[in-house]
Amino acid sequence: MVSKEGLLTEGQREMLETAPPNGEILSSSPKSPGAAKSSSVLLSEHHVKAPSGGGKASTAGIAMRHVRRTHSGKHIRVKKDGAGGKGTWGRWLDTDGESHIDKNDPNYDSGEEPYELIVAAVSDPLDDYKKSVASIIEEYFSTGDVEVAMSDLKELGSTEYHPYFIKRLVSMSMDRHDKEKEMASVLLSALYADVINPTQISRGFFMLVESADDLVVDIPDTVDILALFIARAVVDDILPPAFIARARKMIPESSKGHQVLQTAEKSYLSAPHHAELVERRWGGSTQFTVEEVKKRIADLLREYVESGDTVEACRCIRQLEVPFFYHEVVKRALVLAMETRSAEPLILKLLKEAAEEGLISSSQMVKGFSRMAESIDDLSLDIPSAKTSFQSIVPRAISEGWLDASSLKASGEDGQANGPDDEKLKQYKKQIVSIIHEYFLSDDIPELIHSLEDLGQPEFNPIFLKKLITLAMDRKNKEKEMASVLLSALHIEIFSTEDIVNGFVMLLESSEDTALDILDASNELALFLARAVIDDVLAPLNLEEISNKLPPDCSSGAETICTAQSLLSARHAGERILRCWGGGTGWAVEDAKDKIQKLLEEFESSGVLSEACHASAYEISGCHSSIMR
After folding, report:
1. Does the reported pTM lie above 0.90?
2. What are the residue boundaries of the MI domain, all occurrences included (predicted)?
């Protein structure tokens, strides 16, 4: 039998003790007297059903547990676990009222601060990309620096969004002058394959065609301008001609995009001499060749010497719109001053005026003087007093404040020899410059090889290669072809593969300086590298060897090697690279066949193998591609 005390809590016991004397006692046992529960008021107030006489004691105990009496005598029902309601103590760990965190409390813990939800907008990567490329394009339109634009786009990453760059570049240029349209086409050609792959370029142009209906709202001439962009891309070989036919199948006939494709095909690409017409449609204002720029500079300097009008000369320099190439103005002005001593005061006046106006920056001025210092020995062959004149001009420019002496010294171009080895190397450079110039005039490979053998300095073979290609890059395609042909002959006779590799390493290391004279130096060097591989002068693995020998900071050299590898991996690469300079020194096919036939007949009659090999190296090096065929 269970006692009633065992079924009651302390609180219930207190309630029983304070109950009125005449109150009926609830019992936990059905056998207890008075179990009939006449206190209906007490139970009904708390909605507890009184057990019948045969009810279980546990039921009454559960009902009793939730009944509490206050000091006022009012019965209330409390919550479980003692949390209670009004007038109760609550749970054991509950505190009175709300707690407040005081930052001045020694026991203050910042971790107890309530969390604050911060609502932040989720950025779309594509929107961020579009904003970034818009700034890149704006900067490119302001500076015209293709290399910087390419570098910025590479650093931006997100290559999967490159079609949007194509669309943004073209659409931004469509609402501007012809100059910006030409700049956009030039940049697209530069980005092709190196930064943006052909598939992405096609996708970008297709997006433009799709959006023609929207573009025409802001740009009424959308159909004609966009058609011209597509035609220009086809002419520049960055868009396949089949693009128009493929895009036409996916564009509704009633759309402006269909008109764009039809105009590009019928009005531009089907016209006679369409390539030249398309390339010149926007004036080609950004695509001056090196020769054109140098000719314009020479003309304006000549006119200035005749007129003496400094203001007009500065205006003509500004109209060139090639501030990154103003060092050429400085160099040519100095050469003119040395050639015509009477013109020296006028030349120095022009340079001083251009520097003070900020027309020619300090860095461009220093580059011009540094280049002059580099070539002063070569110039002395034509102008004996060149070195003396230059040494008198430099102190005067420094004293007048328009030439930075510290920058000139930092460039390390003082033209002074530092020892016997330097003097020997300087003499060698003078001699090979004369030999190379003679070769470009005579096209006589045996005579050149004989001259090199007479010099007897094979340790300088890489320097000869560097000088040969550097001089060729500043001339026409004929001389470039002659340099490649000569390189093949030298490799057979006196140059080792190591000499060739080291020569190209030296070229690539100085490529940034070469680009000061030759705007397209990087692409020209890439063609020379690719041509050397096609001619079996270098093996493809030698390109990796050259890359590994470059210093870590020679990014331009590494990019040139990548360009050469891209050229070699293209379709019909061999034929295209062999024809890159037009085969200027090679004979016609029939002439080459006649030469080969005569050589074989002579060998058959004489039987002298060494003589036949000697003749093939010297006489047929210009038509080696015909021999291979």
Report:
1. no
2. 128-249, 292-413, 427-548
